[in-house]
Structures are given as C-alpha cells and as structure tokens.
User: Fold Protein IMPACT-A isoform X1 from Xenopus tropicalis.
Amino acid sequence: MSCPVSNRIAAQPPGKEVSSGVGVRAGGREGERGELKLLLFQWSVGVFVARSLWTCFLHFITLTGSCCSERSMADTEEENLQSQIDEVEALTSIYGDEWCVIDEAERIFCITVSDSSNKPTWTLCLQVILPAEYPASSPPLYQLNAPWLRGEDRLTLANNLEEIYLQNLGENILYQWVEKIREFLLGKSQTSDPAGPCLKSTSEETDVDDDCEIPAEELNESFKNSMLFGLNDSSGVEEIPPIIHGETITDRRSTFQAHLAPVVSPYQVKLILNKLYENKKIATATHNIYAYRIYIKEQNSFIQDCEDDGETAAGKRMLHLMQILDARDVMVVVSRWYGGILLGPDRFKHINNCARNILMEHKYCSAGILIFVFQEESSKQTAKSKKVGKECKKKADH
Assistant:
C-alpha cells in the first residue's frame, strides 16, 4: 500500500520543489539587502543632520565669542580712557602748572622736571603720548628733551623708565616715571658740578640755515610715530643688527665717520647705540649724531627720529637727507672727533656726505634717487672742470 504523501510528491513534475526553495531563499536575501540599504540611508541622514547641527553650533559659538570679544575690547578701551583721565587729573593736582596739556584729543602731555623747586640747576622735559591701549597692554610713547641729555645719560634714564614699565605691566606709571626722572636729576646734581650741567660744546658757531630745517609739523608727526626707546619689544629676544663702519673724512684735524645698521623696530635703535658706545673711541667722540627711518607697511608711514648730540641741527639735517634719499629700515650714526679748528658750515657738509656715502654704498636709496644723485654729482664735476679750465686759460693769456 503506497503512502498518499509520497504519491503526491512523486506526482509533481520534476524540479518544481527545487524551484520553489530557491525562490524563497532569493526573496529572503533581497529583503535583507533592502533593510540594509534602508539602515545605511538612515545612518547617512543621521550623520548629515548631526554634522549640520555641529556646524551650526560652532558658528553660533564663534559669533557669540566674536561679539563678546568686541564688547570686551570696547570695554577695555573705555576702561583705558577712564584710567588715563583719572591719571591726568591726579598728575595735574600733584604738579600743578608743571603738567601741561599739549593736545587733549591726541592725548599728548608734557612736564618739566627739575632737581629742585627753589633753584633748579638740572631740568628735563618729558613729553608723552598715551595710546588707546595704555595702560592695559601698551606703554606710553615718550621723548626726553634736555640740551645736556645725550649718550650714556640718555640710555641710563631710558633703561630706568623701561624697568618701571616692565615691573608694573597694566598699571599707570607716569607718576613713577616723573619721580624716577627727578631722582635721576638729584643724583646728577650731587655728583656733578654744583653750577649745573656743563653743556657739551657744539665746537662750532651756531650758524643754521633755515632752509635746511625740517618743518615743525613734520617733526611733530615724527614724534607721534616714534618711540625711540620702545618698550613693546624690550623682551631682549631681538638680536643686535650688524653694524657697518664707513670711510673717514678728515678736514682741518676734525675726523668724521659714519656707522650704518639695518633696523626694523625702535628697540633695535637702542641696541645699536648701546653696542656703539661699547667702543671707547666712538664713546669719546665729540658728537655722535644719528637718524633713523623705519617703514611701517601696514600703515604706509614711517617711524623716524634724530639726535644732534650737541651739534646744532645736524641730526635734523641728516634725517632730512634720509627722507630725500627715501632710505628705509636703516639707522645712520655719524661720529665727529673735533680737532680744535672751527669748520663752520663745512661740518654739516662732511656729516651729510658721510651719511650719504654709506647709504648709497649699501644701496639704501631707491634707483631713481641714485640716478638723480649721480647726475647731480656729474653736473657739479663738469661745472668744476669748466671753471678750472677757464682759470687756466686766463693764466695762460696773462
């Protein structure tokens, strides 16, 4: 007797059962693939959304931080201004008429400091500009003016003021500066001639041509842009630039020599002067006249200054020469050793010739300026030759 189930299976066409099993398995695989694709799609969408949210969050944080930073900067500037106002009011009440306001809008002030209020023998004028960043993050710009202040005295006093700033970062320091200057003057009065400062002789008559002077407005702008002994760069990380010594010019026993160094910051000017004064011969020169110009590309302006060192108007003339030559990022010091014979106006010619020669030799002049100078020299030489020729002809005729 045959089994019904077996008969039904046997009655089916060959291969039908196999075909049905393959279809079921294929359908299951397609379903799994569809679910996997769906999961991958959902995951991709989730990642995209998460990234978008994270980016939006970062933008939000950045904008919030920027707004906070701007508000913080504005608050800092307001605090600085208020601190400056309070400091100026205090100084006015302490020093009275000695404290002068030169330009309230530009925050320019000055004070004359002396060693004694009764019979002063040593006096000095301190002129300051208070930048918007003072006192929070920047020192005052300053200039020290006195006919006797030069060389080592100037460097010593500048170092003292710099030390005060570094010891009181973020604080008002003008009162401490004034009192340190007064202390310095008292020290000078106790260790020097009781009659007062012995001004360094100019060794020449004070003949100054007005047409060689730099306009007062230009000098004021120079002071606003300059900070001779800059404090921002006084960390000591800057190296002393290489110093080049020029050829000497000798006339009637007076000797002139130029020294040149590249500079990119006012602090380097101080380093160069310190280095030069280490040389005993240069330190004992009758005059060490200098001028420098530093180009600030971002502001399209110059930091520049000069020093006569007792040779009336010599530093201004040399700075004027550097402006004509369009010399940039360079400092020139001209040393003069006086020989005992007055040279008159020729001394200015020798000082400027020393400066011009070393600037041209080391290509601190623009090409157009060099061509002009050479043409001018050639024309002068030609005129001189013609004059000599005429004199020789006259002598021959006689």
